[in-house]
Amino acid sequence: MSIDYNDFLRSKVEIAKSVGFQIDDADINPLLKPHQRAAVQWACAGGCRALFEAFGLGKTIQEIEWVRLTLAAAAAAGEINGEGYGLIVAPLGVRQEFKRDANTLCTGEHPFVTDAQRDELARWNADRPDRRPSVRFIRRNDEIDGPGIYLTNYESVRDGRLDPQLFDAASLDEADCLRGFGGTKTFREFMALFAGDRKTLNERTRSDAIRYRLVATATPSPNDYIELLAYSAFLGVMDVSAAKTRFFKRNSEKADQLTIHPHKEEEFWLWVASWGLFVQKPSDLGFSDEGYELPDLDVRWHEIPTDHSDAGTERDGQMLMFRDAAAGVQAAAQEKRRSLDDRVQKMVELRAEDPAAHRILWHDLEAERHAIERAVPDVVSVYGSQDMDTREQAIVGFSDGEIRELAGKPSMLGGGCNFQRHCSWAIFLGIGFKFRDFIQAIHRLHRFLQTNRVRVDLIYTEAEREVRHQVERKWNQHNHMVARMTEIIRKYGLSHAAMAQHLTRAMGVERVEVTGENYRLINNDCVPETRSMDDDSVDLILTSIPFSTQYEYSPNYSDFGHTDNNRHFWEQMDYLVPELLRVLKPGRVAAIHVKDRIVPSGMTGLGFQTVYPFHVDCIANFTGHGFGYMGMKTIATDVVRENNQTYRLGWTEQCKDGSKMGFGMPEYLLLFRKPPTDTSNSYADEPVVKDKSAYSRSRWQIDAHGYARSSGDRLMTPEEMRDLTHKQLFRLFRDYSLSNVYDYEYHVAVGEALEAQGKLPVTFMLLQPQSWHPDVWTDITRMLTLNSAQSAKGREMHLCPMQFDLADRAIQQWSQPGETVYDPFGGLMTVPYRAVLAGRRGMACELSHPYFLDGCAYVESAARQVSMPSLFDAIENEEGAAA
After folding, report:
1. What CA–CA distance (Å, rounded) separates 349 from 326?
2. How many angstroms separate the CA atoms of 276 and 229, rounded?
3. I want to staple 711 with a disulfide (CB 3.0 to 4.6 A). Which of 98, 610, 739, 780 is the partner?
4. Containing domain of residue 414, as a range?
5. What's the total number of domains in the chain?
């Protein structure tokens, strides 16, 4: 290999690369406070970074200064032509905030700027008028008028009126407001607009994505990791799919449901901190908090009684005793409609405490807006179908204190709007599950530079108690994430080197070896462990290798799943496969279990999912290192279970367009052979000999050809099946399929009959096609693995356990009693476990310490089972001794 294995592992440490410029402190506008200066310097040095700062810390002024400094440095370095074009994309209603801050940076005109600071700014600007930022608002491409900094709304980019790829540097202000445009899909599509080939502006052609990118937004929701991953993709740090694989465990039943691995949590947040700066107050960066004390937050919950007399029914017709708004979207909507009048009445009572106060009235539904307008005639409403200029005028008027009471949806006004100057009271006419909208709405008022105690009234019904509990739970989780990120920033500061040094500690493992009767198990990285083994010392290699970047099994950088992409994975395999060839006896077999992988549409660039032929690259890798390829066994899988994981083969989608449908993903057992020393007769140096008295000609013929005659049995009629269980139906259809000429239409008809009776499952495939051919195994019991024992013990289950059937057949066919079977990726030690039970010597290596410990227990139990004599063995031994 070109580099040492340990150097290869060290190169895996994932810290965001820096592509920006070091900015001298003297070049930063003197009006920026110390924490703002540090953040701008950090963001400029990174080139593509995110500022996740608490509400009121001055993100707007930092964005303007970041764009100005980045364009100037890029122009000086020859990275861009001329002075460059910068773009800031912001929510509706914040145009005035940017205009105010840009003017402050130029003139120092601001209530909080002292005369001394204005004098210092004048001296700083005297010789360099180009330091004064000019921010111009535009909505269309044709409004671009020469180099400079431009401001636009998200709607202009979303609707295609303004192309962001015309700019050299771009900043997204309060980017999480994109979720109000329709959710995750729109969020990702919007991010994609900033990458790819760029268009021509003033006869200049540029290529690649916008080179310098910034996200400036409040602390992201801890309840939606996808938001953070989308920012990472926008900044070019890591693709969403790669980040999912690296840090999260997937729900094996549902696609895109992620839970962070407990052992990956610290690494994940350190990785995020390498490209996203989380700051809750200036002291997080070592500066004074003077002037940045948050006011008290007075949260008041108001429960409205619920009429349970007509609580409705379950799907099966069972009467409900209580209404429960948390039971589903439909139940929540019904509760909102039924309780609207009572909630509005409560709102009117609360307003009566101080009728002249400035207030914002938050709501979620159009019906609620109409009810507010009827109850409060003077209220000014903001809603989606309004003209954008009218909307913006209302937002600015309320922000400036010209409008006393404003009604709006958190999804529309919750991002970017600063209402703290004239308002400190918010009333929520209702509550919901969207925590992001809720917390953003709270912090339109509760933010730095707010001088009054902030009052928040939340109106909900008795049936919405669980909704309230969920909001409070998420709020606590949000505070936990903030504390976690604050801890990391305080510990490591802005030092990438310190973070990288900490992460390299999770590399390698202290070797542990456990041996017993006919087994040897090692807790270690399989590459150095296999290197330490003797030449020609293994009789059979049987393993399920990691499926590239699909999963990570441990927090260790030695983990083969801890790789960036397929190429990177096979680079690590290049260190292992030559060692496997060396330790395998000449002429013997390496049986490698693999499965192809789905490539998400976002990664293909084709707009639809495709298949990565992992098994093809596996064949190329092993044969490239000297193995001979002998063929493959195909192991059929359940297409319905697979679709529940990937949504790739959805029935509804195929009805819309059948051209999208591919096939279910089988697994493969690839057979490789190490060339024998003597190639004249092709026999192994130590052949796998079979006794003909045990391995009959008949068995050989069936193994070699695998065809079976029909028994004349038939499938039961739908009427006969009606009272059978799913287990009985599965076995009957399997037996029928193997004993009859296959009839596709009859297969479909049987399924349709079962569907009509409500007996066709949606979570697994009941009527699976069976195969006669020996190279296709359709009778592998999917759930017969050591995970069953793990589940019974309440322990962590393995992500991809090998099935017993598969291991048993390979061990019986390609090894002999007493021989050594080696698995370099032992996992729960299925291979040595089954090898010991089959009278072989089991040997395996496993990196994950928890898996290793559990696997040792299983193999030890197998060894005891083999060595324990039966009753008849004991009788025979006693008789022999007596004789």
Report:
1. 27
2. 11
3. 739
4. 297-479
5. 4
